[in-house]
Amino acid sequence: DDTLAEAHTSLAYARWLGDLDWSTAEREFKRALELKSSYVPAHQWYAEYLAALGRHDDALVEIKRAQQLDPLSVPVNRAVGWVLYFGRHYDQSVEELQKALAMDAEFLGARLVLWWAQVAKGAAKEAIADIRKELEHPGSGTVKKLMLAYACAAAGKKEEATGLIWEVDAKLV
After folding, report:
1. Looking at residues 123-146, what average pLDDT do you find?
2. What angle do CA 48, 37, 97 make, to 5 degrees?
3. Smallest Cα–Cα separation from 129: which of 105, 109, 155?
4. 132, 162 contact by CB (below 8 A)
């Protein structure tokens, strides 16, 4: 239905990540926002799309609009941290991701971006400590171990990082 912002947003997302048709994706995101400027997922996904293109100022405008429209959305607040991470505003990214985690401490998507931002800003030890705590909880152990390996490598702990990679590799084979 050409009159539904939701349909255009879904099409934009599929064109972007499914087909890698970036120009059609942008056209569809813009059409969705023309139809319904208050549609939060359109702003959120368009912001992430813009961040992936390196259009950080535009991405920040879009994600802040999504956050204004739905300030209690944990995925939107995670996306604010993601956009700031891509724009290399690591301290701000960490702050926003901590806010998202205060809303839902179990949201692994926010925690992963937090760890990337911590490593990027030179706080790999903080990320390592948090990942180790998270490994005590069930679920997504492989992802957490890979992230721990990345953080260990960034902190100069090459042997530990290598051991974690071997451990994950052995599980997958």
Report:
1. 90
2. 35
3. 155
4. no
pLDDT tens across 97-125, in order?
A: 999 999 999 899 999 999 999 999 999 99
Token couple for 3: 């009159």
Give the C-alpha distances (Å, rounded to integers) separating 148 from 10, 46, 104.
33, 30, 21
Q: What per-residue confidence (pLDDT) applies to 114? A: 97
Confidence category of residue 138, pLDDT binned at 50, 70, 90: confident
Residues 6+ apart with CB under 8 A from 84: 60, 90, 92, 93, 96, 117
In whole angstroms, how far apart are CA 149 and each of 153, 157, 158, 161, 163?
Answer: 6, 9, 9, 4, 8
**DSSP labels, 54-88:** T-HHHHHHHHHHHHHH-TT-HHHHHHHHHHHHHTT
Distance between CA atoms of 93 and 98, rounded to whole angstroms? 9
Structure tokens at 133: 């705590």
